[in-house]
Protein backbone atom coordinates (compact mmCIF):
# COMPACT_ATOMS: atom_id res chain seq x y z
CA UNK A 1 0.00 0.00 0.00
CA UNK A 2 2.67 2.37 1.05
CA UNK A 3 4.78 1.36 -1.92
CA UNK A 4 1.87 1.81 -4.29
CA UNK A 5 1.14 5.21 -2.90
CA UNK A 6 4.76 6.29 -3.23
CA UNK A 7 4.84 4.97 -6.76
CA UNK A 8 1.66 6.79 -7.60
CA UNK A 9 2.91 10.07 -6.25
CA UNK A 10 6.22 9.55 -8.07
CA UNK A 11 4.30 8.96 -11.29
CA UNK A 12 2.20 12.02 -10.71
CA UNK A 13 5.31 14.13 -10.04
CA UNK A 14 6.80 12.81 -13.27
CA UNK A 15 3.61 13.51 -15.19
CA UNK A 16 3.46 17.03 -13.78
CA UNK A 17 7.05 17.84 -14.57
CA UNK A 18 6.80 16.34 -18.05
CA UNK A 19 3.83 18.56 -18.59
CA UNK A 20 5.54 21.65 -17.20
CA UNK A 21 8.85 21.03 -18.90
CA UNK A 22 7.33 20.24 -22.26
CA UNK A 23 8.05 22.71 -24.98
CA UNK A 24 5.24 24.29 -26.92
CA UNK A 25 4.52 21.54 -29.39
CA UNK A 26 2.23 23.13 -31.96
CA UNK A 27 3.43 25.23 -34.86
CA UNK A 28 1.54 28.53 -34.78
CA UNK A 29 0.75 31.04 -37.50
CA UNK A 30 -1.82 33.75 -37.85
CA UNK A 31 -2.61 37.39 -37.45
CA UNK A 32 -3.22 40.16 -34.97
CA UNK A 33 -6.78 41.40 -34.83
CA UNK A 34 -6.48 44.92 -33.48
CA UNK A 35 -9.25 47.21 -32.24
CA UNK A 36 -9.57 46.96 -28.46
CA UNK A 37 -6.19 48.71 -28.31
CA UNK A 38 -7.26 51.75 -30.41
CA UNK A 39 -5.41 53.91 -29.57
CA UNK A 40 -3.01 53.25 -26.73
CA UNK A 41 0.12 55.30 -27.40
CA UNK A 42 3.68 54.27 -26.57
CA UNK A 43 3.43 56.14 -23.27
CA UNK A 44 0.62 53.86 -22.18
CA UNK A 45 -1.88 56.74 -22.50
CA UNK A 46 -5.37 55.81 -23.55
CA UNK A 47 -8.15 58.05 -24.82
CA UNK A 48 -9.79 55.85 -27.43
CA UNK A 49 -12.93 53.94 -28.14
CA UNK A 50 -12.94 50.17 -28.37
CA UNK A 51 -13.35 48.99 -31.95
CA UNK A 52 -14.26 45.29 -31.74
CA UNK A 53 -12.50 43.27 -34.45
CA UNK A 54 -15.01 41.78 -36.91
CA UNK A 55 -15.55 38.18 -35.81
CA UNK A 56 -16.04 37.04 -39.43
CA UNK A 57 -12.27 37.37 -39.86
CA UNK A 58 -11.64 34.36 -37.60
CA UNK A 59 -13.56 31.86 -39.74
CA UNK A 60 -12.07 33.52 -42.82
CA UNK A 61 -8.43 33.15 -41.78
CA UNK A 62 -8.88 29.82 -39.99
CA UNK A 63 -10.32 28.31 -43.18
CA UNK A 64 -7.05 29.33 -44.85
CA UNK A 65 -4.91 27.59 -42.23
CA UNK A 66 -4.34 30.23 -39.53
CA UNK A 67 -4.35 28.91 -35.95
CA UNK A 68 -3.17 31.93 -33.94
CA UNK A 69 -4.90 35.22 -33.20
CA UNK A 70 -3.40 37.93 -31.03
CA UNK A 71 -6.11 40.14 -29.61
CA UNK A 72 -4.72 43.37 -28.11
CA UNK A 73 -6.56 45.45 -25.53
CA UNK A 74 -5.98 48.66 -23.59
CA UNK A 75 -5.27 48.18 -19.89
CA UNK A 76 -7.52 51.16 -19.13
CA UNK A 77 -10.47 49.46 -20.85
CA UNK A 78 -10.08 46.19 -18.95
CA UNK A 79 -9.55 47.83 -15.54
CA UNK A 80 -10.64 51.48 -15.69
CA UNK A 81 -9.01 51.99 -12.28
CA UNK A 82 -5.35 51.00 -12.00
CA UNK A 83 -5.19 47.83 -9.91
CA UNK A 84 -8.99 47.68 -9.77
CA UNK A 85 -11.42 45.02 -10.84
CA UNK A 86 -12.06 44.01 -14.43
CA UNK A 87 -14.92 45.93 -16.04
CA UNK A 88 -17.55 43.27 -16.63
CA UNK A 89 -19.13 45.02 -19.62
CA UNK A 90 -15.82 45.38 -21.41
CA UNK A 91 -14.71 41.87 -20.49
CA UNK A 92 -17.89 40.38 -21.86
CA UNK A 93 -17.33 42.15 -25.19
CA UNK A 94 -13.64 41.17 -25.30
CA UNK A 95 -14.44 37.59 -24.37
CA UNK A 96 -16.99 37.27 -27.17
CA UNK A 97 -14.14 38.09 -29.55
CA UNK A 98 -11.80 35.60 -27.87
CA UNK A 99 -14.46 32.88 -28.02
CA UNK A 100 -15.19 33.64 -31.70
CA UNK A 101 -11.49 33.18 -32.45
CA UNK A 102 -11.18 29.97 -30.39
CA UNK A 103 -14.31 28.45 -31.90
CA UNK A 104 -13.28 29.19 -35.50
CA UNK A 105 -11.37 25.88 -35.56
CA UNK A 106 -10.42 23.06 -33.23
CA UNK A 107 -6.72 23.82 -32.85
CA UNK A 108 -6.89 27.60 -32.61
CA UNK A 109 -4.86 29.55 -30.04
CA UNK A 110 -5.41 33.10 -28.82
CA UNK A 111 -2.85 35.49 -27.35
CA UNK A 112 -4.56 37.78 -24.84
CA UNK A 113 -2.34 40.86 -25.28
CA UNK A 114 -2.10 43.67 -22.72
CA UNK A 115 -1.10 46.40 -25.14
CA UNK A 116 0.38 49.06 -22.86
CA UNK A 117 4.13 49.39 -23.48
CA UNK A 118 4.85 48.57 -19.80
CA UNK A 119 3.13 51.82 -18.89
CA UNK A 120 -0.05 53.34 -17.51
CA UNK A 121 -0.53 57.00 -18.38
CA UNK A 122 3.18 57.61 -18.88
CA UNK A 123 4.49 55.78 -15.82
CA UNK A 124 6.52 52.56 -16.00
CA UNK A 125 5.40 49.39 -14.23
CA UNK A 126 7.64 48.57 -11.28
CA UNK A 127 9.76 51.65 -11.95
CA UNK A 128 7.85 54.50 -10.37
CA UNK A 129 4.51 53.79 -12.05
CA UNK A 130 2.08 50.94 -11.46
CA UNK A 131 3.33 48.47 -8.88
CA UNK A 132 4.20 44.92 -9.80
CA UNK A 133 1.17 43.90 -7.74
CA UNK A 134 -1.09 46.11 -9.86
CA UNK A 135 0.15 44.43 -13.03
CA UNK A 136 -0.22 41.01 -11.43
CA UNK A 137 -3.76 41.91 -10.38
CA UNK A 138 -5.13 42.24 -13.92
CA UNK A 139 -3.44 38.98 -14.87
CA UNK A 140 -4.68 36.96 -11.93
CA UNK A 141 -8.18 38.24 -12.68
CA UNK A 142 -7.80 37.18 -16.32
CA UNK A 143 -6.50 33.83 -15.08
CA UNK A 144 -9.75 33.35 -13.20
CA UNK A 145 -11.48 33.61 -16.62
CA UNK A 146 -8.97 31.80 -18.85
CA UNK A 147 -6.65 29.95 -16.46
CA UNK A 148 -7.98 26.53 -17.35
CA UNK A 149 -7.77 26.97 -21.14
CA UNK A 150 -4.40 25.87 -22.52
CA UNK A 151 -5.26 27.46 -25.86
CA UNK A 152 -5.26 30.91 -24.30
CA UNK A 153 -1.73 32.30 -24.11
CA UNK A 154 -1.10 35.32 -21.88
CA UNK A 155 0.93 38.06 -23.58
CA UNK A 156 2.01 39.75 -20.37
CA UNK A 157 2.86 43.10 -21.98
CA UNK A 158 3.12 44.60 -25.44
CA UNK A 159 6.37 46.35 -26.37
CA UNK A 160 8.12 47.55 -23.22
CA UNK A 161 10.68 50.23 -24.02
CA UNK A 162 13.05 52.71 -22.37
CA UNK A 163 13.16 50.98 -19.03
CA UNK A 164 15.60 49.21 -16.73
CA UNK A 165 15.70 45.61 -17.95
CA UNK A 166 16.95 44.23 -14.62
CA UNK A 167 13.95 45.65 -12.87
CA UNK A 168 11.66 44.65 -15.74
CA UNK A 169 12.80 41.02 -15.37
CA UNK A 170 11.93 41.24 -11.66
CA UNK A 171 8.47 42.57 -12.58
CA UNK A 172 7.89 39.66 -14.93
CA UNK A 173 9.08 37.16 -12.31
CA UNK A 174 6.61 38.67 -9.85
CA UNK A 175 3.72 38.30 -12.32
CA UNK A 176 4.70 34.73 -13.23
CA UNK A 177 4.75 33.78 -9.55
CA UNK A 178 1.39 35.41 -8.85
CA UNK A 179 -0.24 33.74 -11.87
CA UNK A 180 0.99 30.31 -10.80
CA UNK A 181 -0.16 30.93 -7.22
CA UNK A 182 -3.57 31.75 -8.68
CA UNK A 183 -3.64 28.35 -10.41
CA UNK A 184 -2.91 29.46 -13.97
CA UNK A 185 -1.03 26.93 -16.09
CA UNK A 186 -1.25 29.01 -19.28
CA UNK A 187 1.70 29.52 -21.56
CA UNK A 188 3.10 32.98 -20.84
CA UNK A 189 4.80 35.35 -23.28
CA UNK A 190 7.63 37.37 -21.76
CA UNK A 191 8.70 40.50 -23.67
CA UNK A 192 12.06 42.27 -23.52
CA UNK A 193 12.59 45.97 -24.14
CA UNK A 194 13.08 48.23 -27.19
CA UNK A 195 9.48 47.54 -28.27
CA UNK A 196 10.02 43.78 -27.93
CA UNK A 197 12.75 43.96 -30.56
CA UNK A 198 13.94 40.55 -31.72
CA UNK A 199 17.22 42.17 -32.72
CA UNK A 200 17.89 43.67 -29.28
CA UNK A 201 16.73 40.63 -27.31
CA UNK A 202 19.96 38.56 -27.21
CA UNK A 203 22.09 41.41 -25.87
CA UNK A 204 19.56 43.57 -24.02
CA UNK A 205 16.80 41.91 -21.99
CA UNK A 206 17.35 38.29 -23.03
CA UNK A 207 20.19 37.54 -20.58
CA UNK A 208 17.92 38.67 -17.70
CA UNK A 209 14.72 37.07 -18.97
CA UNK A 210 16.25 33.60 -19.41
CA UNK A 211 16.78 33.57 -15.64
CA UNK A 212 13.07 33.87 -14.87
CA UNK A 213 11.79 30.68 -13.26
CA UNK A 214 8.38 29.04 -13.35
CA UNK A 215 6.88 27.67 -10.13
CA UNK A 216 5.30 24.96 -12.34
CA UNK A 217 8.81 23.61 -12.95
CA UNK A 218 11.05 23.92 -15.97
CA UNK A 219 10.74 26.82 -18.37
CA UNK A 220 8.72 25.20 -21.14
CA UNK A 221 5.70 27.37 -20.42
CA UNK A 222 7.65 30.65 -20.48
CA UNK A 223 8.05 31.75 -24.07
CA UNK A 224 9.66 34.98 -25.23
CA UNK A 225 7.67 37.55 -27.14
CA UNK A 226 9.51 39.29 -29.97
CA UNK A 227 8.56 41.78 -32.67
CA UNK A 228 10.44 42.79 -35.78
CA UNK A 229 9.39 44.89 -38.75
CA UNK A 230 11.06 45.09 -42.15
CA UNK A 231 11.04 48.80 -42.94
CA UNK A 232 14.05 51.12 -42.77
CA UNK A 233 13.76 51.92 -39.05
CA UNK A 234 12.02 48.73 -37.85
CA UNK A 235 8.97 50.79 -36.87
CA UNK A 236 6.27 49.18 -39.01
CA UNK A 237 5.14 52.54 -40.33
CA UNK A 238 6.40 52.40 -43.93
CA UNK A 239 4.97 50.43 -46.82
CA UNK A 240 8.33 49.37 -48.24
CA UNK A 241 10.58 46.64 -46.86
CA UNK A 242 14.37 46.75 -46.82
CA UNK A 243 15.28 43.47 -45.08
CA UNK A 244 14.15 39.88 -44.67
CA UNK A 245 15.30 39.90 -41.00
CA UNK A 246 16.71 36.39 -41.50
CA UNK A 247 20.15 37.26 -40.08
CA UNK A 248 18.53 38.93 -37.07
CA UNK A 249 16.31 35.93 -36.42
CA UNK A 250 19.22 33.49 -36.84
CA UNK A 251 21.07 35.36 -34.09
CA UNK A 252 17.98 35.16 -31.89
CA UNK A 253 17.59 31.43 -32.56
CA UNK A 254 21.25 30.77 -31.61
CA UNK A 255 20.78 32.75 -28.41
CA UNK A 256 17.66 30.79 -27.48
CA UNK A 257 19.25 27.43 -28.29
CA UNK A 258 22.37 28.30 -26.28
CA UNK A 259 20.36 29.42 -23.27
CA UNK A 260 18.41 26.33 -22.38
CA UNK A 261 16.69 25.61 -25.69
CA UNK A 262 14.08 28.25 -25.15
CA UNK A 263 11.28 29.25 -27.52
CA UNK A 264 9.92 32.52 -28.87
CA UNK A 265 6.95 33.74 -30.88
CA UNK A 266 7.23 36.55 -33.43
CA UNK A 267 3.96 38.12 -32.39
CA UNK A 268 4.24 41.23 -34.56
CA UNK A 269 5.74 41.62 -38.01
CA UNK A 270 4.37 42.95 -41.25
CA UNK A 271 4.71 45.15 -44.29
CA UNK A 272 2.87 47.17 -46.88
CA UNK A 273 1.15 46.30 -50.14
CA UNK A 274 4.38 46.58 -52.13
CA UNK A 275 6.50 44.11 -54.05
CA UNK A 276 9.45 44.61 -51.65
CA UNK A 277 7.29 43.42 -48.78
CA UNK A 278 5.74 40.54 -50.73
CA UNK A 279 9.29 39.23 -51.13
CA UNK A 280 10.92 40.20 -47.83
CA UNK A 281 8.05 39.29 -45.51
CA UNK A 282 7.64 35.99 -47.34
CA UNK A 283 11.32 35.16 -46.84
CA UNK A 284 11.11 36.13 -43.18
CA UNK A 285 8.07 33.94 -42.48
CA UNK A 286 9.58 31.08 -44.47
CA UNK A 287 12.58 31.29 -42.12
CA UNK A 288 10.33 31.43 -39.05
CA UNK A 289 8.57 28.29 -40.22
CA UNK A 290 11.91 26.53 -40.74
CA UNK A 291 13.15 27.55 -37.29
CA UNK A 292 10.37 25.68 -35.46
CA UNK A 293 10.36 24.67 -32.62
CA UNK A 294 12.76 27.39 -31.42
CA UNK A 295 10.50 29.88 -33.15
CA UNK A 296 7.04 28.54 -32.42
CA UNK A 297 5.43 30.75 -35.03
CA UNK A 298 4.16 34.21 -35.80
CA UNK A 299 1.20 36.56 -35.83
CA UNK A 300 1.36 39.20 -38.53
CA UNK A 301 0.31 42.82 -37.92
CA UNK A 302 -2.55 43.42 -38.63
CA UNK A 303 -6.15 42.71 -39.43
CA UNK A 304 -9.06 43.39 -37.07
CA UNK A 305 -10.61 46.84 -37.12
CA UNK A 306 -8.01 48.40 -39.40
CA UNK A 307 -9.56 49.30 -42.73
CA UNK A 308 -8.03 48.29 -46.04
CA UNK A 309 -6.17 51.61 -46.40
CA UNK A 310 -3.99 51.20 -43.26
CA UNK A 311 -0.33 50.98 -44.27
CA UNK A 312 0.19 47.49 -42.81
CA UNK A 313 -3.35 46.25 -43.31
CA UNK A 314 -4.15 42.56 -43.62
CA UNK A 315 -7.89 43.13 -43.39
CA UNK A 316 -9.68 41.38 -46.25
CA UNK A 317 -11.64 43.54 -48.71
CA UNK A 318 -15.39 43.70 -48.17
CA UNK A 319 -15.88 41.30 -51.08
CA UNK A 320 -13.89 38.69 -49.14
CA UNK A 321 -10.71 38.91 -51.24
CA UNK A 322 -7.46 38.93 -49.26
CA UNK A 323 -4.77 41.58 -49.42
CA UNK A 324 -2.05 40.55 -51.85
CA UNK A 325 0.51 40.71 -49.01
CA UNK A 326 -1.46 38.08 -47.14
CA UNK A 327 -1.78 35.86 -50.19
CA UNK A 328 1.85 36.23 -51.27
CA UNK A 329 3.80 36.50 -48.04
CA UNK A 330 1.75 35.19 -45.10
CA UNK A 331 -0.68 32.50 -46.20
CA UNK A 332 2.00 30.22 -47.72
CA UNK A 333 3.77 30.02 -44.33
CA UNK A 334 0.79 29.27 -42.11
CA UNK A 335 1.08 25.96 -40.22
C1 LIG B 1 18.72 49.00 -13.03
O1 LIG B 1 18.21 48.57 -11.82
C2 LIG B 1 19.14 47.86 -11.02
C3 LIG B 1 18.36 47.26 -9.85
O2 LIG B 1 17.63 48.25 -9.18
C4 LIG B 1 20.27 48.77 -10.63
O3 LIG B 1 21.20 48.08 -9.86
C5 LIG B 1 20.93 49.30 -11.91
O4 LIG B 1 21.91 50.25 -11.58
C6 LIG B 1 19.89 49.93 -12.83
N1 LIG B 1 20.53 50.18 -14.11
C7 LIG B 1 20.54 51.38 -14.64
C8 LIG B 1 21.22 51.48 -15.98
O5 LIG B 1 20.03 52.35 -14.13
C1 LIG C 1 -12.41 42.60 -54.38
O1 LIG C 1 -12.10 43.94 -54.10
C2 LIG C 1 -10.76 44.31 -54.38
C3 LIG C 1 -10.55 45.76 -53.88
O2 LIG C 1 -11.50 46.60 -54.42
C4 LIG C 1 -10.43 44.10 -55.83
O3 LIG C 1 -9.10 44.44 -56.07
C5 LIG C 1 -10.69 42.65 -56.18
O4 LIG C 1 -10.49 42.47 -57.58
C6 LIG C 1 -12.09 42.24 -55.81
N1 LIG C 1 -12.21 40.81 -56.02
C7 LIG C 1 -13.27 40.23 -56.60
C8 LIG C 1 -13.22 38.75 -56.71
O5 LIG C 1 -14.22 40.89 -56.97
From TrEMBL:
Segments forming domain Glycoside hydrolase family? 53-303
PROSITE patterns this protein is in? Answer: GLYCOSYL_HYDROL_F5
Q: Does the keyword Disulfide bond apply?
A: no
In terms of SUPFAM superfamilies, this protein maps to: (Trans)glycosidases
Q: What is its EC number?
A: 3.2.1.4
Superkingdom of the source? Eukaryota
Q: What is this protein called?
A: cellulase
Organism taxonomic ancestry: Eukaryota, Fungi, Dikarya, Basidiomycota, Agaricomycotina
